[in-house]
Amino acid sequence: MEDKRLAEDLLKKYLDAKATPKEIEQVENWYNSYEGKNKTLSQSQKAVIERRMLITLQQHIQQRPKAKTAIIRNNTFLQIAASTLLICSIGLFWLKTRPHPQQKTQQPLLIARTQANEKKTITLTDGSEITLNPSSRLSYPAKFAASFREISLEEGEAFFKIAHDEKRPFNVQLPGKLYTKVLGTSFTIRAFKASNALNISVSTGKVAVGNKNQVFGTLVKGQQMTYDKNKETAIISQTPVPDTRIVFEGINLRQALQKLAYIYSIKIELNPASLGNLGCTATFHSKQKPEEILNIICSLYNLKYDTTPDHQSFKIYKQ
After folding, report:
1. What parts of the sequence cross the membrane (predicted)?
2. 227 in the same domain as 116
3. How many domains does one find in the chain?
4. Cα 144 to Cα 125: distance, rounded to the nearest angstrom
5. Average pLDDT score over residue span 145-157
6. pTM of this prediction?
7. Vertex 205, ends 282 and 310: CA angle to 5°?
8. Which of 41, 92, 130, 256 lies at a C-alpha separation of 20 to 30 Å from 34?
9. Residue 298 φ then ψ, to 5°
């Protein structure tokens, strides 16, 4: 059991970009034995490979191999397989890398651009809204694919308010071969070609940032990342959070609480679960604390909630 836990911890460190060079080499060497596999896999094939990878990890941890020089490779398939293994226990869906190019289908692209003194808001087919600041250019498909959503900020600055969709992660391709990946959140990207620095700041939710080789980190509300395009290095720091509207419209209580849990990185449980079928239409602001929002929601439905001492888990129930 101890070896299994060490193996899972090592995979998580690798996906979090926190592994040491020795640990990176261990994981990538184990991956090489599967590199020749077909990268379009069924769920059952993934499950078999995941089990074999975990067994191999346990065996190598027991052997404690000597360290060698680490080389970072394009590891899309490994992160898909390893992330699938971890999702079942710790829900790290947003840490997987961007979709493999072979998964993409050709879609006609639309171009939105702004002049030096102009702002423009674009509403995408999934309900996401993007506000382009002056001197910016964005390309996006006329219709998103069934399994993923992807656009490209080619130049400039934009504020993204992404519609939540657990089945279709949202990717933003950026200059310098950088990308962001989210499920549903709001954030700002500043990426001018004339500047060596690229900046990403998060207003609500979580945003994973990486390139083809690694994930630099997952930003949460109040954090920003400054990326040096020449050195390919990233620095994460704190930033003031702008006030953003949180809108629940035409959804049920279960969907509203799922969105709230994602935005604030908390856990919310409904008891009984049937309460989730209640309709929910409301507007809140990101500067409100989750307790304040839950107080209002519970008062509307004559409900109560309990919370853990760290205010990270909430249980809503009938009075």
Report:
1. 76-95
2. yes
3. 3
4. 7
5. 93
6. 0.53
7. 90
8. 92
9. -65, -35
